[in-house]
Amino acid sequence: MLYWLLSSHSYFAADIMTKPIIALVGRPNVGKSTLFNRLSIHKKAIVYDTPGVTRDRNYADAQLGPLEFIVVDTPGLEDAKPGELEHNMTEQAISGIKSADLVILVADGFTGITPIDQTFANLIRKHNPNCFLVLNKCEKETYPDRNYHKLGMGEPVLISAEHGIGMASLCDAMLDKLKDFDDEAMDDPFKTNRMQIAVVGRPNAGKSTFINALIDDNRLLTGEMPGLTRDSIDIDWEYNGTAIRLVDTAGLRKRVKIDETLEKLSTGSTLRSIRYANTVILMLDATRGLEQQDLNIASLIIDEGRALVLAINKWDLVKDKKAYEEELAYRLSVDFTQVSGLPCVYLSAIDGKNTHSVIEACMKIYKIWNKRITTAKLNDWLSFALEHHPLPLQKSGRRIRIKYATQIKTRPPSFKFFANHPDKIPDSYVKYLTNDMRKNFNLPGVPIRISFLTGENPFTKKK
Hints:
The chain has helices at 2-5, 32-39, 85-99, 115-127, 167-177, 207-215, 261-276, 292-303, 321-335, 355-369, 375-388, 427-440; strands at 21-25, 58-64, 67-73, 102-108, 131-136, 157-158, 195-201, 233-239, 242-248, 279-285, 307-313, 344-346, 402-409, 414-419, 449-454. The protein is of the alpha/beta class.
């Protein structure tokens, strides 16, 4: 234990610019996602006692003792024919193996080594010889047989990811295998100065297909079957010199239809992705039109204060496009009045048409989301707005007065108004101020926060 805590591997100090990538692979339901959560700084992989929960590669910043790294959770390895979902999942795992600096084969120490473990141990060594074996679920540090030597990976590391047993030995094994890691040759895929864009929507709207088209890579599983994406998957990408993190999410269904425990976990993962994003793309299925669930998701995004872009996918399947655009504009004006001027982009993700226009719209609204208005301009506008539409009289005959306004923050634009009777200002007048501010300062599509306080203009000198 002391060796682990006082390790002399100084080249893994926290101030290095790059980190090694460590992939967790193995057959389904051996505890890879549980280990992923144990190692990652922010837990986010869905864990459930059903094989095949993880279907895409999942990356996260991770730390174990003195070692900082990127951990990759991969789909369970299975034999399957080309074109089948399981085959595509295996291809995802193999891609993770090839791109990793170190591969950890995770096997079930309770049930023992299986022929599938043997098959894929050979596969791992073929694509990445820097690997070792971990036997999970060894709470009692015992396992039923000693067939592990057939895998050709040497003595295994015994752990229990669920209970945190064997982490010191695991760290020592990682450090030993990464002695020759060339940190200068790697780029850290996780940077803090990125736009973070979450792609959300109902199941089968084409979110994963859209991201694959953007990055020009079949990075995510796609298919006609709804619900292929279960975890929120982060993908770091660069567009015209701008660093962007794309987050693919599980489809959001109506609450009454979310009855399986696994889907509830997926929904929770999607909601967390919205909260941690700064811009959200709401993907709509053009063949189904704008439904109430789409409006509910949009309201959730706005309530969280995020910039929102509507992406209408499968546009190639719409025959009367002009009528569709007019109907969508009308529905938004009637059913989604809290934010006007939402950017709408029509695309076909499967053909790769207009996908980059969605990102252009995101970058534009991201700037608006960060917009700051000077106090002088804000109060010049306020004087005009009050004169053009005066506040109503109170029952006593006295008029409510708004004396001063200031912007308190961005992301989203938020303002404080000082008034003599802030609690008497009607909601209709707040809506008027919001819409007029949006129009005059060019703030379409982003939420605007307004609060009212009692007080005088703090910049007015008292006589």
